[in-house]
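Hi there,

I know you've been waiting on this one. I reran it after we fixed the sequence typo, so this is the corrected version. Both the input and the resulting structure follow.
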Amino acid sequence: MREKIKELKLNITLSGVISIVIGILLLVYPQESISTIGMILGVVVILSGLAVIFSQLFDFNKNIMGTVVGIVLVILGIWIFTGPSVILSLIPIAIGVMLVIHGIQDFTMAIEGAKAHMDMPWIGFVIAIINIILGLVCIANAFTVINLAFRIIGLMMIFDGITDIGLVHRVRKATNSVVDSYITEEEDL
């Protein structure tokens, strides 16, 4: 039991330290982190495309469509690799468009609610306007939003690492006292 706890402590402590380091990198260098993640994604897509192309070269049933898919993947991977920030900034833009659409839907529902004499119809209008504004902020400030998101993720990872390390050390300390008191009781007999 004691060895298992030592092994668990080492694994969790190492994982916690890695989480803290990654969290600090995301917090302090969000743009560089975005670029690195995008470049890694680009390399993975390029390698996938090359794998498809090479598999088609050695396939007896030559399928031109498979080769075309491989070439498209390689081109897409190169595009992602050379402009990773642009690719990742598409995420907040897509979310922003969704928020604007939902805001417009909320606005039309608020109009229907007002026509039906809903209690406090102004709440629906406020919600719709907030959704539209948030969506426009995501669209207009995609790079800022993605940087902020990476910083928040960095803070979360730092918190996770610190709490994991703290908890594993507290559990180990508690289990050591349980094991020590158990041994002491056996020696008394």
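Quick highlight: The chain has one domain: 2-177.

Best,
R. S.
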